[in-house]
Give the backbone structure.
Amino acid sequence: MNNPIRTAEDPAVYFDPLGETFREDPFELYRRLLEEAPVHRGAMGAWFVTRYADVATLLRDGRLGKEFTQSSFFDELEAVTLQPRFLERAPEDPDKPFLLCDPPFHTRQRALLTQAFSPAVARGMQAEIERIVTQLLDEAERKPDFDVVADLGDPLPLMLLASLFGVPAEEYDEYAKLATTPAGALDVLQDQSPEAVAQRREELEALQRYFLKLIERRRAEPGDDLVTRLLNAAVEGDKLTDGEVVCACIVLIVAAYGATKCFAANAFLMFARYPDQYDRLREHPELAESAVDEVSRFEPPVHAVGREATARIELDGHVIEPGDTVMPLIAAANRDPEKFENPDVFDIGRANHKAQMGFGVGVHYCPGTVLSKPAGAALFRELAKRYRRIRLADAPLEYKPGFGLRGPERLHVVFES
C-alpha cells in the first residue's frame, strides 16, 4: 500500500498497519515501538500511541473525539482502500451511531442503550448462551474437519444476537445473511473493488430495512427482547428515534460479530499453543472469566481504536494538533511491561487480568462486552469439560487481511477427548 503521508521521525520503526510485515507478527513491532517510539507518527499521518499509561489517559481525555469532522485521515483512507464510511453515516447525519458521537449526544444514546441492554439483561441470557455454545460444539464434534472460524466464531455471535433481538426462527437465515455485512466497519480492508463496495452498501441498506420492519412488529406486538426494550427506553421522557434504534442494533452487530469471531479463533489458537494453560483451565474452570481477559490481553481481536484531536495535546514531547488522528494501540498497551509482569507470557490466572484494555476504556467502552464476556466464559467452561486437548490440524495458519480486527482467516483444530 502507498501511504499518502509519510512523516516518521525514525523510518526504522515506521508503523504501517496495512503492511505484510505487520500482519505476520505485530507484537514484535509493538515491542520496538514501546521501547523506541512510544508516541509515533506513522501511516497517513496518524499518531500511534503504545504505552499503557498513555493509552489509558488518552481514551479518557475529552480532547479526543470520534466524530472526525476535522480530520482528513478517513478521507485519505477511503481513497486508498475504497473502504466505505462507518455504517455509511456522515458526521452530520442525525441518526448517526453513537460510536461516531461525542458527549453530550453520545451520552444520551449510550444511556438509553445501557438502560435497554444492561448486565442484568445479559445475565438473564445465561441459559440461552450455554444452550447455543453446547449446540455449536455438538455440531462441531460431528464434523471431520472443524474450522473454529466458520463453524463456531461465525455462528456464535449471530445466534446470540438473534436471540437478543428477538429475531423469529423463520427469519434467522435472512437476518444472518444481512448481519455479516457491517462487521467490516471495524476493519480497514484493502483492494475492494467498486462493485464490492456498492454491493456492501446495498446489503447494509437491506439490513436497515429489516430492522425497521422488526421495529414496526415490536411496536404492535411487544416482546421480551432488545428491540422492544430500546423502543421503551426513556431518560427524562427522551426516547430513541426509529433510526437510532436501527443504528443501536447494527452497532451491537459491529461490536460483537467480527470481534467475537476473531476472539474465538484466537482463544483456540492460544489453548493449542499453550497446553499447560489449557490444562490449568480444565483443572480450575473457575478461571474461565480471567481466561477471557487474558486472551483479550495477549491476543486481542481489536488492536487499535481511532480518535480525532479536538484541541492541542502535548504528549511525550510531541504536539498533537486539532484535527490530527490518534490511534491508541491497545494491543501494544496490553503488552507493556510497565503494567503487566512478563507481558509476553500467556497466563490465564494473571493477577491484574481486569486491567487489560481489549474491550476499550472510557466512555466508548465496548457495549457488547456485557454479552461477549459471559459467552466467552461459557465457551471455555464447556471446552474444559469436554476435551482433554485441543490440537492444531496440519494446515497453514493465515491471518485475515486488514487492520482493526486481527484473527486467523481459518483455524482447523482437532479435539482429543
Summary: The two ends are 45 Å apart (CA to CA). The beta strands are 39-41, 47-49, 64-65, 146-147, 307-309, 313-315, 318-320, 325-328, 389-392, 412-416. The longest helix spans residues 242-273. The longest strand covers residues 412-416.
